[in-house]
Amino acid sequence: MSLFELQKAALIAKLKSHRSEFRHLITDHTTHPIIEKLLRDEVLNYVFTFYSIDDEKRSLNREQAIYILDPLVPYTIDCLLADFSAGCRYQSAVLCFMPGLTKTTYARLKANSNLMKACGNNFDSIDFLSLNPLESRVYVTNNHYSIPALYNPQHFGPDLNEYQVDKAVEAMMSACVLSNEYPIVRYYNSPVSRKIAYLFQQTLDEYYRKHQELSPVNSKTVFFITDRLMDLFAPFCHYKFYRSQIFDLMDTQIRKARGEYTYVYDYQIQTGEGIEKKHLVFDDEDPVYSRLQDLPIEDYTKSIIEQVNELKATEAKFSNLKYASDLSHAALNQADYLFSRQLVTGHFELINKIDKTFRDECILDCMVFESKCASNLNGNKEMYEPLTEELLELLANEKIDTGNKIRLLIVYTYYRGGIVESDLRKLCHFGLPDQSKTDSIVTLFKNFQHLGFNMLKSKPNDKPFRITSYFEIKDTPELTERYVPSLTNIVTRLAYGRLPEVYKETYSSDRDEDAPKDFPYVKGAPIDDDDVGQQFNAPVRNMPKWKSSKQSIDSTKEKLLIFVAGGLTHSELSTVTSLEAKLNKSIFIGTDELYSTWDLIGDLRLINDERKNFNFPLDEKFARKQVPQHLYERSAATQPNKSSAPGATPNSAQSRASSRSSSAHQLAQTTSSDSSRKRDKFFKKFKALNI
C-alpha cells in the first residue's frame, strides 16, 4: 500500500474507534488540509459535519464532537478554550492531538473545567499525520526553508533549529507507525543527522514500549538518516530523468508556490474548434507522468512515442465502428480515451519542448563537464582530465544561460576545493553577461561556509578544503554515465548490506579502533545472519525483549527507510526512486521539502537575511491572531437549540437526525459539483459521441 492509503486507513480507523459518525469533526489550519486531502468527498461517510475550529458555519448542534488539532499552535488552543469558556460547546468531546503538546498547554487545558467535563479528562493522540505523502512512498515534513533553519541557528535562533529537528522525528515516526516497522537506525555522521538519529531512536523506543502490540518482529529493516551535508555536489548537477528535465529546464513555465506541492504546466493545442488551453498536473493522478518521471531521456522519449501510436490506433478503431454493441462499448470508454489523449498529447508537447531546450542550451555539454569534475575527484588517475579550459569554453558559450553557468562554477569550485575570490570575480566577468550579479554570486559562494564548505580561499597557496565524498565513478567510456550520486550509491549499498560503518579507511591498521565512523548505528551494528544462523528473529541489540511478534505490513517485500534533512531536489529524488525495480525493495524516502536547484541557490544566497523575510512554518504557527467572538458567544447553551426540530428534546433521535440532515446539506453544497459530475458520468460519455 502507498503512504497515502495507509494514512487514510489509519485515520478512518481512528475516527471509527470514537464512533465519529455521530460526531462533528473539528480541525484547525494544520489538520484541516491533511484530512481534506485524505478523505475528500468521502468525509461525511465517517463524521457528522466537518469544519475548521474558527469557521462561523459550524453546526449549532451541541451533542458530540471530535477535535483533531495541532497543539503547538497558540491560536488553535485559544479557539478550543473559547469553545468551552462559558459552558460546554459539546456535551461529549474527544480531543485528539498531534505531537507537540507541551506541559504549559496541557496545564491550560486541564484548568478548563468545562472542557475536562466534556472530554472526560482524557486526551487522545494522532501519531500518523505528521508526514505529507507526495507520492506512493515519498513524503515531506512541510518545513520549507530548511537550509537556513538547520545550518544557521546562530543567526535565526535555536528554536527554529529545534522545531525542524522535532518535525523530522515526528514525520519519521509516522512513517514507522504506518508501515508497522521497528527499524535499525543508522545515520550519516554529521551534527544534524546525529542529533536527529538519537532523538528518533529515543522516540521510537518509547512509542513501541507503550504499544507493544504494534511492534513488528522484522529486525532487518534499516532506517537511514542523512542530511544535506553528505552531498552538496549532486544538487547542482544535471540529470537525464524526465522529472529532472521538467524542473531544471521548464522551471519558469511551471505554476507552483514554495511549500506547496501542486505543479501545473499550461500549454495550448490546436483542435478543430481552434486553439484550446490545457494543463498538466504533475502528481500520482497523472498515470503518464507516473510512468515517465524516473525514466532517462532515451526511455521516456520511446515510451511517449509508443503511447501516441497506441492512441492513434484506438482512434482509428473508434472511427470504424459499425454495430450497435460496438458503439455502446465505445460510448462507455470514450471519456477515458479522451482523458488519456489529453495527458499523452500534453506530455508529448512538453517532451518536444524539453528536447529543444536541451539542445539549444547545450545541457549535454554541461552534464559531460560535471561528470568529469566528479571523475577527477573520485576516479582513478587514468580518468583525470584538466578542466579549466573546458570551463572557460562553457562560460563563453552564449547559448548557456546564467543560471546554468552559476551551477558550473559551483561544481568546478567544489572539485577544486575552493578558489580565491579574485579568480571567481574574473570568471564571472568573463562568462556572465550581467555584471551586476557578480557581488551576489560572491556572497553565495561565501555562504557555503555555513555548511562547512569553504568555497573561497584567502590565498592561492591555501590548502583546498577536502570533505569525504560518497559518490562513485563507473569505469565507462560514456561520460554522462560515469557519475553515480552519493545518495544512489549509499542506498544501493544499504539494500545489498554492503555499507560499512567506516566508508573510506584513511588510518593505519594499528589505529583501526580510532577510525571515525562515516555511517554508524545508533545502538551498534546488529548480529550478522552468518553468525546467528536461523536465530535472526531473536532479539538483537536494537530490539528489546518485550517486542511482540506482529508481522509488518507488506512483509513479502523488504523495506528501506530513508530520511534526508535539509531537503532534496527533484532530480535527487529520481536518483533514489528509480532504484526500486532494480533493488526489488520498497524504498520509503522522506525529507523536509522538495525544491528546485534555483530554490536551493536562493536559500544559500539569503542564509544571513532577516528572519522576518522568510515564511518559516514555525513563525506562521505562532503568528498572533484574534479568536473570533462567535466562539465565545456559542460556548454557552442557547434556548431553543436552533438545530433541534420543533418540539424535540436536544438529545432525541429526531433532533440528531434533523441536525445531521441540515449539516450534511450545508457541506454537500460545497461538493455538489463533484457529486453531480459522478452521477452524470455515464450520460456524459454518450454526449461525448454526440449520440
Automatic annotation (TrEMBL):
Polar residues: compositionally biased ranges: 636-651
Entry superkingdom: Eukaryota
Annotated segments matching region Disordered: 629-679
Any one GO biological process: vesicle-mediated transport
Chain intervals with Low complexity compositional bias: 652-664
A Pfam family recorded for this sequence: Sec1
Family label: Belongs to the STXBP/unc-18/SEC1 family.
Protein name per Swiss-Prot or TrEMBL: Protein transport protein SEC1
